[in-house]
Amino acid sequence: MNISQNEELVRVEKVEKVFRRGSEEIHVLKNLDLSIPSGDFLALMGPSGSGKSTLLNLIGGLDRPTSGSITVQGERIEVLSESRLAAWRARHVGFVFQFYNLLPVLTAERNVELPLLLTHLSRAERRRHVATALEIVGLSHRARHYPRTLSGGEQQRVGIARAIVTDPTLLLCDEPTGDLDRKSGDEILELLQVLSRDHAKTVVMVTHDPHASARAKRVLYLDKSQLSAAPVA
Amino acid sequence: MSLLYLALKNLGRRKLRTTFTFLSIVVAFMLFGYLCAIRHSLSGGITLQGASRLIARHKVSIIQLLPESYKQKIARIPGVQAVTHQTWFGGIYREPKNFFAQMPVVPDEFLPMFPEYLLPEEQKKAWGSTRTGAVIGRKLSERFGWKVGDKIPLLAPIWPKRTGGNTWEFDVVGIFDGKDKNTDTAQLFFRYDYFDEARVDEAKGLIGWYMVRVNNPDEAPALAARIDAEFENSAAETKTETEKAFLQGFAKQIGDIALLTAIIMSAVFFTILLVTGNTMSQSVRERTGEFGVLKAIGFSPAHVLRVVLIESCLLAFLGAAVGIAMAALLITSHGDPTGGMLPLFAFLPRDAGWGAVIGIGLGLVTGMFPAWSAMRLRVSDAVRRI
Asked: What ipTM does the predicted assembly reach?
C-alpha cells in the first residue's frame, strides 16, 4: 500500500527489516512503502510486535533496513555512515521516548542543552535556545530542577524540549504518553499538536492509545507488514 | 555545559564507588612516589663529577682492604689526574638505628676530588689544623643538631684503637653543603692520618678503596682496565669501575632495587588497572540506555568514546595528582623514613611528570574497553534498556 501526499518529507520504499535471533529470522517489515508529507501529524498504531517502533527507528536513522530505501528531505539515510547518520540525526530529528530518558545527573535545562553540545553555538546562544524550548513546553520555572524532582508529565515536557531545541524538521515520538496518567498525557498530546500546527513540525507518533491517536491529523495501522487507514478486521 | 562537565557529573553519580576507586588510585600513586624516592636514594647521587671518577676496590669484595701503597702506582698510570682513598668506618652513634656513613679521608686530596661538597675556606683550614677534626654534611648536622665545636663519640666495632677500646671521638670543625640536591650531605669525614695512627698496628696502611679522577671521561673504561691490569696476580687484585657502577653494585647488596621497585609498581598498577577498569565498566553498563539516548540525539561513536575516556582519564588523573602531591608532601616534610639509611631520599619533579603520564595512561587503558562497548551500542537496543 502506498500512501502519499504533496510536499513529501519522508519516503519509505520497499523496506524490509529482518531480525535474527540465533538461527531464526524474524521478518518484522516486508516490502513496506510510506510517504509522510511535511507538517503531518501521523499516528502509527497496531498490535504489539507489528513493527511500529521498528519503522519509527528506521525513519529516525536509529536502525538500518535490511533492504529498501528511506529518504528524508531528499537524502537517502540508509546509505550514510554511522558518524554521518549521527550528524544527520542531530540536524533533522528530535526523539521523544516513552520513559523520557533524561540524564538524572543533569538539571532540566542541562538535559535540554545536550543536543546543542554538538553544534557550534556559543554558550549564550545555547542558553537562549534552551530558554526558548523550555518556554514552549511551559517549564521555564522548573529549569534548574533535576528529573527526580519533576512529575512524569514534566519530565516528558523536558524530553520534548530536548527534542525540539535544535529546531529539527521531524519529531519522532515512541509512545510519548504511555507512562503518563490521562491528564498529563492530554497535556503532552496538546503540546505535540501545538508543535505540529504552530511550529510546522512533522510529527510521527507510535501509540497504542486510540485517545492519543485521535489528536493526530492522520492515523495509520500497521499489521502483518501492511499499512492501512483503518484497523485490519 | 561541556563534555568535561558531563564527565564530572557522571563521576558523582555513585559517590561511594567513585570515592573508593579514587582512594585506591591515590594510594597507588603515593606508593609510586615512595618507590621512586627509594630508587633514587639508592641509585641516584651520580653527579656530573661522578662521570670522571673511577673507584678501585678489592677484587674479592668491598670489605676486603687494599694496601695504601697502591696510591703511588695508580697515580703513575697515564690518564689518571688524581687519586685518593676512603675507608668504611662503620661507627655507631649511641645506637645502631642512628646509622650514617663515616669515612677517614685525606682532606687535601678529598676536597678537590669531590667539588660537590662545599666547605667554607676557614673550616677547610680548621680541618687541616685539627687532627681529630671531622666535617659533617648539612643534613647530618640538622638530623642530630650538631654544630661546629661539638664532640662526637662513635663506637667502631671493626676498628679497635691501638690504645684499647673501640670508641673514637671527633671534633666537628666544619659543615659542608651539597652543590645540588643529588649531593649526599648525610655523611661524616675525618682525617685519615688520625685514623691510621690510632688504629691497631695490624690494620695500619690498609684502606677501603681508591677514588681516581681521570683526564678524559671517555677513556674511563680503558683506564679502569689498565688499573686492574697493574695489580693483576698481586696479593690484592683490584676491580675498578665507574662511580655509577660502583654505587649500583653497592645498592645491589640489599637486592636488585630497580627490579624490585619495577615488580612492586607493576603489581600495584595492574591491580589499579583492574579496580578502575571494573568501576568504568560497571558505570558504562549501568548507563547503556543513556548512551543510547546520546547517540539518538546525534552523538557520534567518536563523541561517545570521548565522553567515556574523559571520565576515566579524569578519575585516574585526579587520583594520580592527589597521590603524587601527597607523596611529595610527606617525603619533603618527613624525609628519609629509615632515619639515615637513604640519604638521598627525595621526590623529584621528573617523577611527578612520569606519574602524570602513567595517570593519563591508566585512564586511557581503563576507559578504552568500556568506551569501545558504548561506542558500538546499537541505538535501538540501547534505548529499550532504560
From this structure: 0.86
